[in-house]
């Protein structure tokens, strides 16, 4: 094998020429087209990267209570059911109290990420006001957004616990109400105007000072134009039951308001009504019922103190203060005090009077409230407890002028003017009954009883005496004889009396025929009456003549000529 290879090498080397040609490397001038391919690829990559960066949307962080139903890379961010982003990651906060969801939104949504923008998770929910989020049963939960364009930019948000009932795109207006208590109101409770639903309660919060509740409600457009500064809102939950002379009256806005509560409003037509559009900072009071809402609001309030010596059982805080049957205020406080100097219990009652309820007539330049009250007290103004209901025993304070009361003056205790009082109606009746009982106790009943016993004994002796028995027997015999006499008179005299009556009737009929019109006696009677009338006339003429000529009695009629 090696021999054969050696022969081949020798034969090939013998065939090569003595000098081989050399390759010469030269430089070409210009750019090679081969380099265009990587440059184009690089430009495309840079362009794609720049486009990706330019089209990348903003990244937001949303703080949630929990991430139930959310998945990174799958959960969408939607606005009006249109996808505008996607959740990229879900992490737990450092304090382990909340969940931080990172989401990337589409390009162009930066201008909507402001302080007013709100996020929430749409899930199936069942509440008293209805059912929502049923579409997420199939598609899964998603994050919804209510964007606000105006305001400073923001990238971190705290999601709402519940979806808002109304978004910013909903036409209408929001109003803030203030109430001491919430009552039966709930989120989603209807708002009524003349028993037509025109809005809903958007939410409620407890005031920072804990003294009341702020209720946020939304009124749909165009009904929001009905709300003005003169509008009164009241709690329309449940039934309004009133008892009057016409019977029992029950009123309710709807069955829904009975179940989940409700708010109603109306506009009052008063002299003070302005009907101006309320500003964003305007707060409406929420009244307890329709009657309270339609009452006039009085700003001027005066406090007075009344001292009562008797029992005030039945008088409660909030009881009305009335002046001749018209409410002018209410009771604010009731206490029990012991006067250590006099060792006497007193009950001070603080009342609130609204002077604006009383219309004034006369010269207002002379108006001095304390001076007027002093004059009224001097004239007999007194406070008195009266029974408002015999069924419940509730009391109220009655202010009135009593002319029979002695003059008194206005005093002041602990910064409050003190109005004089007088015993109440029930207390006065009790006093009168006590006086009557005292008089009865002082009455000599025992002596009168002894005398009455003596008198009855004498009467008993007379009744049981023998002479009285004989008198009674004689009276009985006399009555028997009188009865027999009356029977005989009925038998014997009755026919004769009937005959006499018949004869009298016939006589009267004859007289009637004699004096009838046209009868001879009637004609003669008329003639006689005529002659008597003529004679009377002649006597009157003669009397007049003699009165004028008395000398005619001596000389005769001719002598007077």
Automatic annotation (TrEMBL):
Its main location: membrane. It comes from the Bacteria. The chain crosses the membrane at residues 30-50. InterPro entries: Mce/MlaD, PqiA-PqiB_transport. Keywords: Cell inner membrane, Cell membrane, Membrane, Transmembrane, Transmembrane helix. GO terms for cellular component: plasma membrane. Residues 57-147, 172-232, 311-400 form the Mce/MlaD domain. It is found in: Cell inner membrane. This is Mammalian cell entry protein. It comes from Thiocapsa imhoffii. The lineage of its organism: Bacteria, Pseudomonadati, Pseudomonadota, Gammaproteobacteria, Chromatiales.
């Amino acid at each position: 094998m090696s021999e054969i290879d050696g022969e081949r090498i020798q034969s090939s080397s013998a065939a090569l020429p003595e000098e081989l040609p050399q390759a010469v490397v030269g430089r070409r001038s210009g750019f090679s087209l081969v380099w265009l391919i990587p440059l184009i690829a690089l430009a495309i990559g840079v362009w794609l990267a720049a486009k990706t960066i330019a089209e990348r949307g903003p990244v937001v962080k949303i703080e949630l209570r929990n991430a139930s139903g959310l998945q990174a890379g799958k959960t969408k961010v939607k606005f009006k059911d249109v996808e505008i982003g996607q959740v990229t990651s879900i992490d737990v906060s450092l304090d382990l109290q909340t969940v931080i969801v990172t989401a990337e939104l589409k390009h162009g949504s930066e201008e909507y990420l402001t302080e007013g923008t709100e996020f929430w998770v749409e899930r199936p929910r069942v509440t008293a006001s209805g059912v929502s989020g049923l579409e997420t049963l199939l598609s899964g939960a998603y994050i919804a957004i209510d964007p606000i364009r105006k305001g400073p930019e923001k990238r971190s948000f705290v999601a709402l616990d519940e979806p808002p009932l109304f978004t910013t795109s909903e036409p209408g207006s929001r109003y803030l109400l203030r109430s001491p208590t919430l009552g039966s109101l709930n989120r989603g409770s209807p708002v009524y105007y003349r028993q037509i639903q025109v809005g809903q309660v958007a939410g409620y919060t407890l005031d920072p000072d804990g003294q009341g509740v702020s209720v946020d409600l939304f009124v749909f457009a165009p009904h929001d134009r009905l709300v003005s500064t003169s509008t009164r809102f009241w709690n329309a939950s449940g039934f309004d039951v009133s008892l009057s002379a016409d019977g029992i009256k029950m009123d309710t806005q709807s069955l829904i308001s009975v179940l989940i509560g409700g708010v109603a409003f109306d506009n009052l037509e008063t002299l003070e009504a302005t009907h101006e559009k309320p500003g964003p900072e305007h707060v409406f009071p929420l009244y307890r019922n329709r009657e309270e809402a339609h009452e006039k609001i009085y700003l001027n309030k005066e406090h007075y103190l009344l001292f009562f010596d008797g029992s005030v059982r039945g008088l409660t805080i909030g009881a009305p203060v009335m002046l001749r049957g018209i409410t002018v205020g209410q009771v604010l406080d009731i206490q029990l005090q012991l006067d250590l100097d006099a060792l006497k219990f007193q009950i001070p009652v603080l009342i609130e009077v609204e002077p604006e309820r009383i219309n004034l007539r006369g010269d207002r330049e002379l108006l001095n409230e304390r001076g007027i009250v002093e004059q009224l007290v001097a004239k007999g103004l007194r406070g008195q407890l009266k029974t408002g209901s015999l069924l419940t025993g509730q009391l109220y304070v009655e202010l009135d002028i009593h002319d029979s009361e002695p003059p008194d003056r206005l005093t002041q205790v602990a910064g409050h003017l003190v109005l004089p009082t007088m015993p109440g109606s029930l207390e006065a009746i009790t006093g009168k009954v006590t006086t009557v009982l005292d008089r009865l106790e002082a009455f000599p009943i025992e002596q009168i009883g002894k005398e009455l016993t003596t008198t009855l004994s004498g009467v008993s002796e007379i009744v049981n005496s023998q002479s009285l028995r004989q008198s009674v027997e004689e009276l009985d015999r006399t009555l028997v004889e009188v009865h027999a006499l009356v029977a005989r008179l009925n038998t014997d005299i009755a026919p004769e009396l009937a005959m006499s009556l018949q004869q009298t009737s016939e006589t009267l009929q004859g007289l009637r025929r004699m004096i009838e019109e046209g009868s001879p006696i009637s004609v003669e009677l008329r003639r006689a009456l005529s002659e008597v009338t003529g004679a009377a006339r002649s006597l009157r003429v003669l009397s007049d003549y003699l009165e004028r000529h008395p000398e005619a009695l001596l000389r005769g009629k001719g002598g007077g000529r």
